[in-house]
Amino acid sequence: MRTILNVIWLVLCGFWMALLYVAVGILAFILIITIPFGIAAFRIANYVLWPFGRTIERRRDAGVGSLIGNVIWVILFGWELALGHLVTGVMLCLTIIGIPLGIASFKLIPISLVPLGARIVPTDQRFYAAM
Questions:
Q1: Rounded Cα–Cα distance for residues 85 and 82 (Å)
Q2: What pTM, to 2 d.p., does this model score?
Q3: Which of 16, 28, 65, 113 lies 20 to 30 A from 71 at CA?
Q4: DSSP letters of 34-83?
Q5: How far is CA 83 from CA 8, 22, 38, 110, in A?
Q6: Distance (Å, rounded) from C-alpha 19 to C-alpha 21?
């Protein structure tokens, strides 16, 4: 079922949202100081292409640097990407088939706002790590 949802997601919105993240990543690399943001953008672009079967896990060892970086990220790039996920999610929820995809788009908003101090893990791995 995950594969079917991922393929539908990729066709309807995953590819386009990933392109936005790649554009942000390239811009961040051009600005040189924001290279860590570019790395985060490329990591999230990979997640946005194939989100079903993976989830976000907050890192407990993330320090003050990730907090400061997340504040800068929200100001520079995060709110635009979150707005993109919000609009995409609303548009997907207009159809019955798109409702699970819209919910997945809404679940991507937190990582689009604060990507530093988070990692993307398979859902199976997160389940076993909690045990």
A1: 5
A2: 0.83
A3: 16
A4: THHHHHHHHHHHHHHHS-TTEEEEE-TT--HHHHHHHHHHIIIIIHHHHH
A5: 21, 16, 19, 11
A6: 5
32-58 burial, b at 16+ Cβ within 10 Å, e below that, comes to eebebbbebbbbbbebbbbbbebbbee
Distance CA 106, CA 94 (A): 14
Q: Please, which pLDDT band fits residue 5 given cuts at 50, 70 and 90?
A: confident
DSSP label at 120?
E
CB 50 within 8 A of CB 107: no
- Give CA 76 to chain center in angstroms: 16
Residue 9: how many CB atoms within 10 A of its CB? 23
Token couple for 46: 């990979």
